[in-house]
Amino acid sequence: MAINRRQFIGSAAATLAAPRLVLAQEPDGSDAADGGLQQTIILTPVDLHLLEGGQGHTIAWSYGDGPEPAVIRARQGDELKLRFVNTLQQETWLHFYGVRGPSDLMTLNIPPGEANAVDCAFVPPDAGTFWIGPMADQSRARDMGLYAMLIVEEAEPVADLADLPLVLDDWRLDDDGAIEGNFGDIETMVGEGRLGNWFTVNSHFRPRLPLKTGVYTRLRLLNAANVRTMGVLFKGFDPLLIARDGQPVTPQPLDSKALELAPGQRADLLVSPEQGDIRMALDLFEDIAEIGYLTAVTPSTPAPIAENFQLPANPLSALGPIPAATTFAIRIEGGLKGGLKSAVFGGEERDLRTLLEYGKGWAFNGVAGPAVKPLFTVKRGDTVVLEVENRTAFRQPVHIHGHVWQELAETPTGKWQDTAVIAPNVMVTLTFVADNPGTWAIQSLVAERADGGLLAAFKVEPAQPEL
After folding, report:
1. 288-295 and 208-210 as β-strands: parallel, antiparallel, unpaired?
2. Where are the beta strands (DSSP E) in 127-253?
3. How far, in Å, CA of 82 to CA of 448, rounded?
4. Could you give the CA distance from residue 110 to residue 91 in angstroms, rounded to a whole number?
């Protein structure tokens, strides 16, 4: 079925179990986004039918009992109350990716067993599109379906927009639709990663998804793949990009270009059903693979959106003076042709052969994670500059937990994101305000590389009170 062309923070990594996209269970039929009542998220095994025509049996893991990945909804400024119940056989470590919540709640351990349910309540500060995913045994967990989309709606509703979550994935399946189980393969870990061979949208093969008539639809895209960067093409309408990584951007049309999403990245787009079917495809460089269709039963032309339309800005801290910023150098090493000869792991310097025996082949600043010590420590409110150098042969999507950054050329770009995609042998400079106290991770969003060592931490200490 090959398609042409185309510790962790503070503790040792644990084996993972996992989830998938239905609306989380809500008590008394309440609207979850209104806040107040607790949503129960049940981690459970599911039997998916991912092959063409709904054929095959794919035993996956899920955050719900439906055939699609789970979608959890909240509202900006309202308390989100969740209860996680793990009915799988393994404990699960999960993280709220892109959410600037309290550090002690953004990464959770969910032991197996209904008696070990874990409650979590916090107020999301930002509106936008985020996700929940694994923080341990990431390769297996994500490939088995351990992800959910978290939608935080704006405190005040934005215009008259319909809403359509789209979770993109590539599964590595055999001819019968079962997930190939060669997890932990060393060559895969030090190489490109676990590329799939079967593309789905919302866990369906080439689905037809209805668009609401008479209004624009806000597409919320998440790339849930382990390693593949998705170059998403649209035919039949030129979407308007309105947000990246959960943060608003100045609206701009794609102009027939592919929308590139590295693993874990999100984007929000506006489309209209006025032209009937909108075809979605992936640019595989040598081929184009159609992955789904957006269709309106009765095509219509909605009222035009305002010329000055833009999503409301989130309450982000303003950057301080760059010359006074605290600067740290971070180098990424390892992988095939990456030149890594040794690294610290478990507190000891180990040669490459020994590292590989431990399943490690990547390092931040000479340490294969999960690391014992943070890469750096700053005070709350500090403006931080990171000079991140990719010394490897692969593009690296690097995600910073609990914060958003801007790229710094001569001046900050003004675009806030949480994941930087760094080309081979290139250094990028990122700047952010360390306004969220706690211990936070910096990691690769390629699952196999995070498992293989690209998982480090930094610490934000509370500011000293003024005397």
Report:
1. parallel
2. 128-134, 148-153, 161-171, 198-201, 208-210, 216-223, 230-235, 240-244, 247-253
3. 29
4. 6
Count Cβ atoms below 10 Å from residue 181 Cβ, excluding itself. 11
Burial class (CB in 10 A: 0-12, 13-18, 19+), 289: middle
115: which residues sit within 8 A by CB, 6+ positions away? none
- Report the amino acid identity of residue 436: N
Strands 39-48 and 80-86: parallel
273 within 8 A of 211, measured Cβ to Cβ: yes
pLDDT digits (tens, 9 = 90+) for 13-44: 332 222 223 344 443 334 455 556 899 999 99
For residues 382 and 54, what is the distance between their CA atoms, to the nearest angstrom? 52
In this structure, the strands spanning 266-271 and 240-244 are antiparallel
CA distances from 200 to 189, 218, 337 (A): 23, 19, 32
Token couple for 283: 């640019």
Q: How far apart are CA 234 and CA 166, in angstroms?
A: 13
Contact 359, 184 (CB under 8 A): yes
Which element (helix H / strand E) includes 399? strand 396-400
Q: How far is CA 454 from the centre of its chain?
A: 16
Q: How many CB atoms lie within 10 A of CB 397?
A: 22
pLDDT exceeding 90 applies to what percent of the chain?
Answer: 79
- The token pair at 263 is 């693993």
Tokens describing residue 49? 């039918």
Q: Please, where in the chain does CATH 2.60.40.420 lie?
A: 21-157, 322-461
Q: What is the DSSP letter of 408?
A: B
Peptide bond into 45 cis (omega under 30): no
Confidence band for 306, pLDDT divided at 50, 70 and 90: confident
The Cβ of residue 420 has, within 10 Å, a number of other Cβ atoms equal to 21
The domain made up of 21-157 is a member of CATH 2.60.40.420: yes
CATH architecture label of 322-461: Sandwich (2.60)
Helix (H, G, I), strand (E, B) or coil at 320: coil
Q: Which amino acid is at 50?
A: L
User: Is pLDDT at 46 greater than 80 in this prediction?
Assistant: yes
